[in-house]
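User: Structure tokens for both sequences below?

Assistant:
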Amino acid sequence: MTCSSCNKQRADLHAKKSRLKSDQMLYLCSECIQKKMEPRYLVIMYGRDKGIDAKVVDIIKNRRYVGEDILAKEILK
């Protein structure tokens, strides 16, 4: 299986609830759990739904996601 955040094949995946959406279950590797990573798509979806709040700002400022920079136009409607 692959990690929901870094998309790498890992043997040490753990089922965890997302910090952004508690009803969303993720399979994260130990490294992503330690770094408090979230999937990029989930950060964007949460930002669009709830607005840019402290959770989203913290994740974006500290690059707690894998992938390209998240642009304001991806979050703002």
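Moving on to the next sequence.
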Amino acid sequence: MNNQIFDDFERTEFSDEIFAILGRALTVATRFDASTKTLARLPSFKLLPLIKSKLDDDEYEKILEKISSKYKNLNRAIESLQPKEDNDELLRQARESRNELIHEASLGATKGFDYMNGEELTQRLTHIECLVLQIIKGESIISTIISVQNKESISAYPFSKEYESKYVNWVMERFKK
């Protein structure tokens, strides 16, 4: 049987650089997803120590498992936070950017990136960079809310252009020859 997906598919240093960018972008998207779901579950987790003494080990484990399985959907996790209007739009954009990165960013690259012309590749990378920036902005909001909930100090740095630039550059960086 001939596997059509991998016919004429060759790894090259160039293509690996681009796939590495996608991998780092997916890492950013996954971090945002996990942080948001953690925040949505946080109130329930904070109640657990209060009721633990009333439960046997099996009951406690069942409740812990139930809380851990809540908000598997990112949109529902964001909705559960009931974000204020100014944050709602940024979180929506971050969610949509995360979804696009995870579900569509590598579409059309089944033969690698060596076959794309320079303009097409530049447009694709610029678009990925925009998606990553939207996710970074959403993740900064989520991280700040988690800090507030945990009564930790809050830094304005994640909202600075310097932070955004460093984070985006980490994702988009390619090796110079």
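User: Anything stand out in the second?

Assistant: The mean pLDDT is 88.
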